[in-house]
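Tokenised fold entry reproduced for everyone:
>
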Amino acid sequence: MRDEIILKPINQAQHSEDALDLAMRAADYATLEVGHAPDDAYILDFFTAVPPDLEPDCLMHFGIMEGPAMVGIICIAEGYEFPDDWWIGLLLLDPAFRGQGVGRKVLSDINKRARERRIALLKLAVLAANPRALKFWHREGFTHHRDAPATPQSDGHDRIVLKYQL
């Protein structure tokens, strides 16, 4: 495991270029999710997409850093779906850092931060077409919450919503 991995708060104005560079390295996931390589619109969505009935200030964005290098990004929405929930909207890692304990370290940091804020539940949705991610989240203790099938209004992906009780 890489011990030098830290989470650093990031924002759209200062970190969009680094986030796009990271997303391009992790284009396998972005292409699975949106059907094409990541672009400026993909990064804009990462920084600005707000869950229903919430305000932009509910969003927390972090760069996953190894020294000065951004090796991943994560976005969390506080208060979705319930006031004491955190919703992990995206955890994206550079493929060169997958399978090395980075995701586990990031999740440990998120769990610590959530407990400090008295958050009761972490939730996220995994693309059904991404079995490797589903295996990772299950291995980390997340359990099935519900299925979220694609609808005519959605992006066409079936998802599996997982939860983790803190």
Notes: The first helix runs from residue 12 to 25. The longest strand covers residues 69-78.
